[in-house]
Amino acid sequence: MKIRILLLSLACLLCTMLVNEASADTKTYYRDKVIVLMYHHIDKNEGGVTISPARFGTHMKLLHERGYNVISMDQFYKFMLHGGKVPENAVLITFDDGYDSYRKYAVGIMDKYNMVGTHFIIGQSSDLHNVKTPHLTWDAMRELKEKGHSFYNHTYNLHDYGPLDKNGKKTGPLLTNRIYLKDKGRVETEKEYVARITNDLSKMEQRLKEELDNDYGVMSFPFGAFNQTVKQVLKDMDVNLFITIRPGINKAGSDEVYRLNAGTPKMTANKFVELLRTYHD
Fold this sequence. Notes:
disordered N terminus; 9 helices; TIM Barrel; three-stranded parallel beta sheet; single chain; alpha/beta; six-stranded parallel beta sheet
């Protein structure tokens, strides 16, 4: 009899623990807001903005186990600009640069938890494959788009720094600066600057439409650098959502998006959890 009572008590304790655990998993941390995570490259050799498959897997597992709801760019776009709804504890997963490691590592990990991501592509790298680290092909992107992943603008070929003076000692992001023209012996005019960035950004939007038939435009700024001229050039192309690297949580109604940098080897499991908690209500 005592054994039966003991077993019953243990069973009740176990049930209580499971209920509490389930409650913790479905806890509401925030409503009508979205955390956007930023990643770049995944490789077994970590460093800089490169993290291991294991580290990324831990991040995704923590999102799943702790009750965060990963949404698509379509959901996020409609939420930010058109009054759409998002679930509580909403998270958007983004990658920059277009590395093929997204297909090789990240997609399989996200598949385990029925998650999708958004990747911002450097167009020339996917067109010419003229870089050391493999980039996504358009064929791969089309296949992934069928599974719910999405791909947008990270410039065609302006993800770099350029000279701002004659000596070339002063440099700045190509997208946001009037660069020094060596052949003309001067800094480009405002008109020349606008024409240069317009040509690049329009070419990238064209490639995205040609290859992926995108319905709308989203831009992630290289190095997080942008100005009002860049925004206006993009708006004239019907690109209306702009991804920055400024930390924060996103509320509807803004065209500028905050992101949290999770793609660093320093982002341990504990630090990842604390990063998310920073933005809980």
